[in-house]
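Contributing new records

If you add data, match the layout below exactly. Sequence lines come first and carry their own label; structure lines follow with theirs. Keep one chain per record. Anything else will be rejected by the validation script.
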Amino acid sequence: MSQANSIAALQKEAQAEVGKFTKLLKAIQKAISKEFLLILMSLVLAIPISYFIYLILVDWLGEPVLEQLEELTDEVPLFMWCYAIAVGGCYFSRMVFSAIQSITKKQSS
């Protein structure tokens, strides 16, 4: 009888570990999904921002400065550089927002 009790106890422990593991997998899946959506949002949001920056640069900078920029960027269009900077800025601001949010959650708890 004691062997049956020990087997039942081992099965309960195993089921508890499986439950913990599935909770962990769900949490990881949720975090990855959230990060994917935030990266996608940053990529989409960066398009109008980069276009706005590009228009400002083209309007305010003279032709000699634009030619020098093209030489420095190895013939990569200026809009692509503006887009890369805008994506980095959007993602960085999201990370700062998340950091501030996590700090305020810890202080309120």
